[in-house]
Design brief:
By secondary structure, the chain is an alpha+beta fold. Helices cover 20% and strands 28% of the residues. It has a 5-stranded antiparallel sheet, covered by helices on one side.
């Protein structure tokens, strides 16, 4: 289990690369955070734990969607770069995807 809690990324480093969005969690998790933007029902949960320390994982969540999931996840995914993460986070939080 210890390997699942190691990441080559940091929460503070990713937050610095994702300006323009508001952090919506209490900041206590060292390997995860939630962002919100212009669309009030949408959020992105970003987490850094998993099998591959190079991956950045995310959940696109929408509280107005009927997903059948307890956490309103519309899509889950993983990326290897901040640029790839921005391609999901930006459009989702601006309500265009």
């Amino acid at each position: 289990m210890q390997d699942n809690l190691r990441s080559n990324w940091t929460v503070s480093g990713l937050l610095a690369e994702l300006p323009g969005f508001q952090r919506a969690d209490d900041g206590s998790d060292l390997l995860a955070f939630r962002l919100v933007g212009a669309s009030p029902q949408r959020s992105v949960y970003v987490y850094l734990y998993g099998q591959d320390p190079d991956l950045i994982h995310f959940d696109l969540e929408d509280t107005s969607a009927e997903t059948g999931n307890w956490d309103s996840v519309v899509r889950r995914g993983s990326v290897r770069t901040v640029e790839e993460l921005r391609q999901f986070v930006g459009p989702w939080l601006h309500g265009s995807r």
